[in-house]
Amino acid sequence: MGSGSGRADGAGTCSAIVVGGGIGGLAAGLALSRGGRKVKVLERAAAFGEVGAGLSLWPNGLRALDALGVGDQVREQALAETQAGIRNSSGRWLSRTDTEELARRFGHVVMIHRARLSEILRAALPPGVLCADTEVTRVALRGRGVEVGHRAGVSRAGLLVAADGIGSTVRRSLWPQAPQSRYAGYTAWRLVVDTGQRLPAGGESWGRGERVGIAPLADGSTYLFCVADTPAGQRNPGGELTEIRRRFGHWHDPIPRLLAAADEEAVLRHDIRALPPLASFVTGRAVLLGDAAHAMTPNLGQGANQALEDAVTLAACLDAHPGDTEAALTAYDRHRRPRTQWIARRSHRIGSVAQWNSAPATALRDLLLRRTPGSAVLNSLAPVLDWQPPGREELTTR
User: Fold this and answer.
1) Alpha-carbon distance 300 to 244, whole Å?
2) CA distances from 81 to 90, 216, 217, 218, 226 (A)
3) Alpha-carbon gap, residue 336 to 289, rounded angstroms
4) Three-state DSSP state, 76
5) Least crowded by CB within 10 Å, which of 1, 192, 339, 341?
6) pLDDT value at position 83?
7) DSSP secondary structure, 285-326, as one string
């Protein structure tokens, strides 16, 4: 079960090399390994792990985890949402999500710590798959395979999976014409707070050019994220916790209580960036996965879920086209690119509306939210949440 985290062999040859050991890379390594392939997952950090933040797993992501054989373990370590919706900064509900109906139609939405999900995926990998402290310095397509240069030497494989994030080294090397990521116009602070008492429910609160999200976690702590319109690259010299307390400390309960209990060291700040649509996720025997392919804003909570879908679909495509990697990758691109790019566009639109700043615009937005039936919201989510792992016939039909 458990996998070590040694370094890559200097001249190793395997079926597939996965670059990047985040959620998408680990899922890809697991999906490919379950198909009987010899896989190496290369991670540049000295150890595998995830930063201290929460993660929402939607029904489509949980189905992908079921396909990877770890869905039940994840559910045991996660907390199902019991209340969701949007309030204004004073706490008035603008829109409520019927979580029972959502679960009946699509399945539960659960929250888990990213580090815990990473641990579950790593433990499910065969021994010898993980290679930490292995920064990739060079990638090249070599006939019917790939060659990857890294600190420990050179590794070769018949397939390269780039799961190395929005700033992907592999994408820059093998997709030189691909557009660079773009700033969405807002920054985000993320932190996990332990007040000693689990909150009964979470949700989002929208203001003018600012938002706060709250999600209880299974261990009794709370995941908190704050969003604000700011120029890119800004940082607060007095500390980021000071900044978010200034911005959001007067919002409705329990936001002030959570911020009062937070530690500066727990605060992560990242400018939100997204990747413009690519013309293809495939070149030769190399394929993009997760944020390396379709980094999107977090407004639909689908980033990690789409990476999990990618991993399951890639392995299914290879299984559906045995011995024909090119056909498998063509099928992967045909199935994944339209869906992920559509979800990315939708997430961008939601973020644009959520970040409206003018008083008349936000008043209109809030009025529309209050008047939109909950059933309409669930119907709009159906194309995202209805996803099922693809079958062989679906993947072999042109």
Assistant:
1) 22
2) 22, 8, 10, 11, 19
3) 9
4) helix
5) 1
6) 83
7) TEEE-THHHH---GGGS-HHHHHHHHHHHHHHHHHHSTT-HH
Reported as half-sphere exposure (CB side, CA atoms, 13 A), residue 360 has a value of: 0
Instruction: With cut-offs at 50, 70 and 90, classify the pLDDT of residue 3.
Output: very low
Measure the CA–CA gap between 313 and 290, rounded to whole angstroms: 12
Q: Smallest Cα–Cα separation from 21: which of 299, 307, 284, 355? A: 307
Q: How many CB atoms lie within 10 A of CB 284?
A: 18
**What domains appear along the chain, each with residue ranges and CATH number?**
5-83+106-181+275-355 (3.50.50.60)
Strands 286-288 and 136-142, bridge-based pairing: unpaired
Q: For 63-94, write each residue's pLDDT tens digit.
A: 999 999 999 999 999 999 888 899 999 999 99
Total Cβ atoms within 10 A of residue 239: 12
Bridge partners, 229 (sequence order): 186
Among residues 57, 52, 304, 300, the alpha carbon closest in space to that of 191 is found at 52
What is the C-alpha to C-alpha distance for residues 230 and 212, in angstroms, rounded to an integer? 15
In angstroms, the Cα distances linking 242 to 125, 280, 301, 328 are 41, 43, 26, 51
At residue 334's C-alpha, the angle toward residues 329 and 338, to 5°, is: 135
SS3 255: helix
| pTM score, whole prediction | 0.95
Contact 379, 55 (CB under 8 A): no
Closest CA to 227 of 168, 304, 301: 301
Residue with tokens 């013309």: 279
pLDDT digits (tens, 9 = 90+) for 157-194: 999 999 999 999 999 999 999 999 999 999 999 999 99
268 forms beta bridges with 190
